Each structure stands twice: as C-alpha cells, then as structure tokens.
C-alpha cells in the first residue's frame, strides 16, 4: 500500500454519504454519525446522541458486496482494526468544544500521531 499519511480532514465519501443519510433519517436523536473505516474495507456506522451515547444500531456494510468480510463476521469489526474514524455531524453541527467532547467519548484519542 502506498498510501500517504497526510493530515487531511476526514470526510464522508459519496457512497458513505448515502448510508449516513439513511441512518440520520432513522435516528431522530442523532446529532452525528460515527463512521469507522476498517482496514479490510468494511465500514461501521452508528448515530450518536448529543451526550455521546449511541442513538442507533451499529450498521456494518461493505461497499459493492453483499455482506461484510469473513474477518468482520468473526470479530464483529473489531476497533483494533480501525483504519480511520470520524464523526459526520448533522447540520447544524454542535460547537467545536462539544464536538471534541463527543469525539473523545465515542472514538477516543485516535491515531493522531
Ligand atoms: Zn471486513
């Protein structure tokens, strides 16, 4: 893999966006969607409430595939294999301080080194 470690801001991709919108629709309490990209290519998403609590079921899927990969079926998409994770905020997004607070609670201190 020749992926460069650039410090770009993580944003939802088009296909993720569609998933995110679906989750938002079904989660009236959600103020953001946690998006976890796993090393294997599968995705894990869940809505989060203003208190940083889960506001929906965790949804797992794999792009252009009928189901998630064997590995994910085994370990349920372990957070150990997280490649990238971020929160997609529902507009209007909460204050920056609140965003930090929730991110910390939900994702923890991610790989920012
Ligand atoms: Zn997988």
Set out the fold topology.
Blueprint: H1 14-26, E1 32-38, E2 42-48, E3 59-62, H2 70-75, E4 82-89, H3 96-106
The structure holds zinc ion.
Quick synopsis:
With 113 residues, this protein is an alpha+beta fold. It has helices at 14-26, 70-75, 96-106; strands at residues 32-38, 42-48, 59-62, 82-89. The longest helix has 13 residues, at 14-26.
In words, what does this structure look like?
With 113 residues, this protein is α+β, with helices and mostly antiparallel strands. It contains three helices and four strands. It has helices spanning 14-26, 70-75, 96-106, and strands spanning 32-38, 42-48, 59-62, 82-89. A hairpin with a 3-residue loop joins β1 and β2 (42-48). It is globular and about 40 Å long. The model has no long low-confidence stretch (mean pLDDT 90). The site of zinc ion has 7 residues, from α2. Zinc ion binds next to α2.
What attributes does this structure have?
four-stranded antiparallel sheet; 23% strand; alpha+beta
Radius of gyration: 14 Å
Distance between the termini: 19 Å
Cofactors, ions and other ligands in the entry: zinc ion
Percent strand: 15-25%
Number of helices: 3
Mean pLDDT: 90
Given helix and strand content, the structural type is alpha+beta
Helical percentage: 25-40%
Shape, please? globular
Q: Output the helix-strand order.
A: HEEEHEH
Got a strand count? Answer: 4
Stretches where pLDDT is under 50 for at least 5 consecutive residues are none
Major beta-sheet overview: 4 strands, antiparallel
Strand order of the largest sheet: 3-2-1-4
């Amino acid at each position: 893999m020749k992926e460069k470690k650039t410090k770009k801001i993580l944003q939802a991709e088009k296909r993720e966006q569609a998933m995110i919108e679906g989750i938002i629709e079904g989660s009236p309490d959600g103020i953001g969607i946690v998006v976890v990209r796993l090393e294997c290519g599968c995705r894990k998403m869940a809505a989060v409430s203003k208190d940083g609590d889960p506001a929906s079921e965790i949804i797992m899927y794999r792009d252009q595939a009928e189901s998630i990969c064997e590995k994910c079926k085994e370990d349920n998409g372990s957070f150990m294999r997280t490649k990238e994770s971020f929160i997609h905020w529902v507009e209007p997004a909460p204050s920056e301080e609140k965003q930090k607070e929730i991110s910390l609670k939900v994702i923890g201190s991610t790989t920012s080194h």
